[in-house]
Design a protein that fits this description.
Distance between the termini: 27 Å
CATH superfamily: Ribonuclease H-like superfamily/Ribonuclease H
Strand order of the largest sheet: 3-2-1-4-5
Mean pLDDT: 89
Number of strands: 5
Oligomer: single chain
CATH topology: Nucleotidyltransferase, domain 5
Structural class: alpha/beta
Helix content: 40-55%
Number of helices: 7
Shape: globular
Low-confidence stretches: 17-23
Order of helices and strands: HHEEEHEHEHHH
Number of domains: 1
């Protein structure tokens, strides 16, 4: 995807109203390239993806990524504590300007929704305590901003990010999702 396409997607995804020529002049005046670090979080009880993205103008660089993997032998409460500790450590170490997290998605299973909500809460509480602004994006929006297709597979997402950021190899899916969240924020955020 070229830069022009990315800009069009960013404009489309920001939800701004457009003039009769299809251009939102107010948004264009406000849109400046994001500068600073973004911590991307793809929350899950047993496989939370984390990524730190450095943004400077139109340049983006992955500084760090990891997946917090916990076996079923680790209690749910311990997992939540470790998620909170890891996010707290990364925010203290990398000093992100913003946090980008996957928004709550609709699931039919109540227990799954409860577990996902707890994992999100554990991660986001670390950012909230430090007064770091948190932005939430639906998976469809992230895929549209990064890949250009809202129904892209995890493989497509990981490969596209590796190409866009000149990574030596594609990231594991949880890390790629976290990096995609950070990049989506960098490409679509408009200051108020």
């Amino acid at each position: 995807m070229n830069g022009k396409s990315r800009k069009l997607w960013a404009q489309h995804l920001s939800g701004n109203k457009k003039s009769s020529q299809g251009v939102d002049t107010k948004a264009l005046l406000r849109k400046v390239p994001f500068s600073g670090r973004i911590l991307g979080i793809d929350p899950s009880l047993r496989g939370t993806g984390l990524a730190v993205l450095e943004c400077s103008g139109s340049s983006h660089k992955l500084l760090y990524s990891e997946t917090l993997k916990f076996t079923s032998k680790v209690s749910s409460i311990s997992c939540l504590g470790k998620i909170h500790e890891s996010v707290a450590h990364l925010t203290d170490l990398w000093k992100p300007r913003h946090v980008s997290c996957e928004a709550t998605i609709y699931v039919q299973n109540f227990k799954t929704a409860q577990i996902m909500g707890a994992a999100r809460g554990a991660a986001l509480s670390a950012a909230a305590i430090r007064d770091i602004p948190v932005f939430e994006y639906a998976p469809l929006r992230v895929k549209q901003a990064v890949v250009g297709f809202g129904r892209a597979s995890k493989e497509q997402m990981s490969q596209t990010l590796a190409q866009m950021l000149a990574l030596p190899e594609a990231l594991p899916f949880d890390q790629a999702d976290a990096l995609g969240l950070a990049l989506c924020h960098a490409l679509t955020w408009v200051p108020e």
